[in-house]
Amino acid sequence: MPSTDSRPTSAPPHSAPGGSAPGVPTARHAPGASGLLAAARASLRHAAPALLAYAAVRLTGLIALALWAHRRHHGVWPILAAQWDADWYLGIADHGYAHHLGDAFDANNLAFFPLYPVLVKAVAVLTPGSRATTGLAIAVGCSFLAAWGVHAVGSHLHGRRVGVLLTVLWAALPVGLVEWMGYTESLFTAFAAWALYAVLTGRLLWAASLAALAGLTRPTGVAVAGAVAATALLALRRGFSVRALAAAALAPAGWLAYVGWVGLRVSRWDGYFAVQRLWHNEWDGGAETLRRMREVLARNSSPELFLIMVTVTLLAAVVLYGLSVGDRQPLPLLVFTGMLLLIVLGSGGVYFPRARFLLPGFPLLLPLALYLARASHRFRTLFLTAAVLGSAYCGAYMVLVWPSAP
Fold it and tell me: How many angstroms separate the Cα of 90 from the Cα of each of 83, 93, 133, 403?
């Protein structure tokens, strides 16, 4: 694709003074609480088409799941709210964390970061229904905040059409159903997207605060912290700034706080990493990833469909990162997605959830969104229709046929 068409820029269109996309005012123009609310309302109106499209994509997937589940005599709610990782988070909300490291594999809940179960426990006190219902409601609500943030980043860099397309592509990922499950991906993507948007619009302390919250949500929060801290440290080259220095220190604080707390809880400095070893999650530089890819693509005569989808997703992510570098995306996006890929591809842990682990890496979809924005209306419609229907099928297959966690 021609770089002159797809090259992102941190400068806004001329119709959007002040460094934001058209129709998205910044806090510099609206100081104070009332000004921030006005800016949020304007931003929400600007993102409305993207959010409606996001809802349509996810509802299509939900309908497909409901129809398939009905034929198999399964209930939809337990699948979405109370299985696999959702069950672990609900257990933490109910009973707290383990006090000791132990030696049982895949059994220590200290591997799961705390912010989501804390939110579930806190909100459940104020709302009717079970904690599982509360957790699912939080995940769905956060998915819309995430979609809003995804649109904000795409719209800021390339205009409203690309922002909408980026949101739809993120919603239509093969594992997009996870966005409406009792998992942390929606909450984490919301923090990541808005942290990146804050960086792109020069709000380093906001970005660092969101990065710290991302670091309390998932292990890959360190990728958000890396993107924010790198930007803040580079800003110091233009001159000393207390704000930039504070942002660089604050960004990794959430991740470091939880890792440090786990070490204190199990009485060893590498406590969190010892827990990860009990879950078979050790860094091996990608050796296990390559072995599993060869097994799926070359050695297994009848590989599982879900594993094929995971493998294709990982390979596509690498290609898209190369295109992102070629398009000269802003540094924060490249650092975030680069670190995310290093963590996911370099892990020696379980293979099948890795497409889900990449779900927050929405900037990887920017080259595709840019291409679709320039494509003919017919091609764009056919491509997005196929993506949405494929996502609906993959999501239902993932939770109804695939026997392990998404």
Answer: 10, 5, 10, 21
Radius of gyration for the alpha carbons in the chain, expressed in angstroms and rounded: 21
Cα gap 318→293, rounded to integer Å: 13
Q: Dihedrals φ, ψ of 283, to 5°?
A: -75, 125
Tens-place pLDDT, residues 62-103: 999 999 999 999 999 999 999 999 999 999 999 999 999 998
Which token pair is 364? Answer: 């990887």
Minimal CA–CA distance to 255: which of 312, 316, 201, 213?
213
- Give SS3 for 283: strand
Q: Taking CA 331 as the corner, what is the angle to CA 327 and CA 332, rounded to the nearest 5 degrees?
A: 120
Q: Residue 347's beta-bridge partner residues?
A: 283
User: DSSP per residue over 41-84, as a string?
Assistant: HHHHHHHHHHHHHHHHHHHHHHHHHHHHHHHTT--HHHHHHSST
**Most distant CA pair in the chain, distance:** 64
pTM for the model = 0.91
Q: From the CB of residue 53, how many other CB atoms can be counted at a distance below 10 Å?
A: 20
> Tokens 């990922």 label which residue?
173
Place of tokens 């970061």: 113
Phi and psi at residue 347, in whole multiples of 5°? Answer: -80, 145
pLDDT band at 180, cuts 50/70/90?
very high
